[in-house]
Amino acid sequence: MNRIAAILGLVLFAGPAGLAQAKSLTVRGLSFSDELGGFTLDQASGSGAPEDPFVIVETVTGPQHPVLVIRGLSGAFGNLIGSQHAAGFAMRKIVINRTDHRWQRYELELREDLDQQSDYGDGLSFAQGASQGRAERSDVFAQVQDIDEPFDAIVFSDGAVPIGGQAEFDFVITDSSPVDVFYLLQEQLDQVAGGPAGQVAEGQP
């Protein structure tokens, strides 16, 4: 069973009672929701501009990897980062580790369809092709890797978030053909074993 199938299975298992506990916060016309589980949405603030990014605070609990549901993006929303895309905004994500394992890598992935990875054709990305505004950083992880094809992701590594700790991530999201609903998938991995020649096997609970 793949990660998304597992997420959907847990959501369906939770039933109406689980969905009733979901939280949605709206800032400057965008709504952020924790309805797919795996985390609690604590706060949302900011304007989405580079100097005043949306600040989303989440407590990650598991067992499934969290998926932040974002609604309301459109051409009328505008592009706040100055790139060539029809819509765009800056985000700072603050995540608190309430899982049962430390994190040594944190991955963010964008999708318009929860069951299908985002490709170049859908226009959604972390400012792919932008010559300005693509400032990605973390206060915990020193290395940042952009993956533009065949899907849209950012991988933060070379750091660790212990149980009870937290990390900040700064990045931008853009869309050349905005849709009302899209998803920000998050995956936290811990290094569990060392392999030959310095290779590291990565695992998750």
Give the helices and strands, then pairings.
Layout lengths: L2 H18 L3 E4 L2 E4 L5 E7 L8 E7 L6 E5 L15 E11 L7 E7 L12 E2 L11 E2 L4 E5 L5 E5 L8 E10 L5 E14 L5 E4 L2
Brief overview, please?
With 205 residues, the protein is mostly beta strands. It has one helix spanning 3-20; strands at 24-27, 30-33, 39-45, 54-60, 67-71, 87-97, 105-111, 124-125, 137-138, 143-147, 153-157, 166-175, 181-194, 200-203.
Distance between the termini: 14 Å
Structural class: mainly beta
Envelope shape: globular
Low-confidence stretches: 1-20, 192-205
Oligomer: single chain
* Strands, total number: 14
Helix amount: under 10%
**How many structural domains can be distinguished in the coordinates?**
1
Strand/helix succession: HEEEEEEEEEEEEEE
- Mind describing the biggest β-sheet? 8 strands, antiparallel
Average of per-residue pLDDT values: 85
How many helix segments?
1
User: What's the alpha carbon Rg, rounded to whole Å?
Assistant: 16 Å
What features would you describe in this structure?
The protein has about 200 residues and is mainly β. The chain has one domain (about 5-190). It is built from 1 helix and 14 strands. A hairpin with a 2-residue loop joins strand 1 and strand 2. The model is unreliable at about 1-20 and about 190-205 (pLDDT under 50).
Entry keywords:
205 residues; mainly beta; 8-stranded antiparallel sheet; 6-stranded mixed sheet; 1 helix; 14 strands; 9% helix; globular; disordered N terminus; disordered C terminus
